[in-house]
Amino acid sequence: MGTAQTRWLITGAAGMLGRELADVLAEAGADVTALTRKDLDITDAEAVRAAVAGHDVVVNAAAWTDVDGAETEEAAATRINGDGPRVLAAACASSGAVLLQVSTDYVFPGDATEPYRHDAPTSPINAYGRSKLSGEQAVLELLPERGYVIRTAWLYGAHGRNFVSTMLGLAGQRETVDVVDDQRGQPTWTRALARQLRDLGEAALAGRAPAGVYHGTATETATWFDLARAAFELTGLDPERVRPTTSEKFVRPARRPSYSVLAHERWADAGVATQPHWREQLTEALRTMAPNGSGA
Q1: Which of 49, 154, 211, 219 is 20 to 30 A removed from 184 (C-alpha atoms)?
Q2: Which of 127, 138, 151, 124 is nearest to 43 (CA)?
Q3: Which residues contact 130 (CB under 8 A, 6 or more apart)?
């Protein structure tokens, strides 16, 4: 079954990744149903069963994404990030659909010294991470043969506010920008991840992709400082205007992992390409992004 014949359902379609995925699938000629939070409450079992019916691949891009807010509203975050995926997984188990559950590096403690493998022990250090881990566990439990968890991190893109657009916006307001240089990860463009999700969904339907956990991030690593400097440089701004600082200068309610580097060994098992180098992604992405994060 080719992409054009596959029936896809996207939840959270108004978000940065959901909108990108809808665009990528539409460009491939796929049959796409894109539902926003207003269209579908993913915790409503009856509504979810009706929405999933007739689709081959479901991508859950709906999520509670307020990391700091989850610290005081963990139950609400877990309802969306944990209970929602469980409801979706149950519906997919009944209908026979494949489920791609988008998750996060925050399921790890962030104290490693080498990339986290897909099977590395999880141990979230904040409420958001715990809520997302709950969703992962539900999908893997209810869909052992057709459930896929794709952990990603440091997302930016044309649709919505994100770190890259924020940095470029600040460039027009400040002479210098202080950015933390003690957190390391893999800056990932939403379109690169969307392409990978498209390919994984097709591989899953073709029986080529083992179910389970995959890590969907760019190759090679950077700090937030590195990323901000690169964004300045690639848009013709002076990268020296970006100055390094430490996380201690930007205290947040939720602890952040200091090391969010994920390993990509499982993509070879699925016959799906790993993502390009983060700087290559950024170069391509900046051609489509305006400073405020909207499409150019």
Answers
A1: 211
A2: 138
A3: 74, 78, 124
